[in-house]
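Let us practice reading a record.
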Amino acid sequence: MSFRRRKRFIKISSLNDLHNFSNRIINGIIISEDNFEVLAEIKHELRASKNLSVSSSAQNNLELTPKSVTKGTAISALQDYYAVNKKDTVAFGDGMNDLEMFGQVHYSVAMGNASELVKKEATYETLSNLESGISHFLNFLSSQ
């Protein structure tokens, strides 16, 4: 038996639309393949919102989530739910949207393909995602 998840997309064309659908939105993404300056302006405006958290996994996108929901809050909730100590947790990241979770774990690991800022914020760096960087780091960690 297979299950197909229905994806429901809502096109947001204005700030008014955003407010009208805000109670139904879990997350959003804005993508521009060629106009990074406009994305930067939009990012600046959206960051002023009291309800949205704005991050990016690449230069060509903005990722929007409710202010109270980040990768960091997700890790914190899982640590609490499963009673896992912070010193026993690892987070791997390669984009700006991964920085929030680095503060919630003991081992923050930047992938080799990460931006320089992500590498600077991490406590460790491993090989890229195409070079089995996660496996490489976990083998390193288990040998310690």
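A brief commentary: The radius of gyration is 18 Å.
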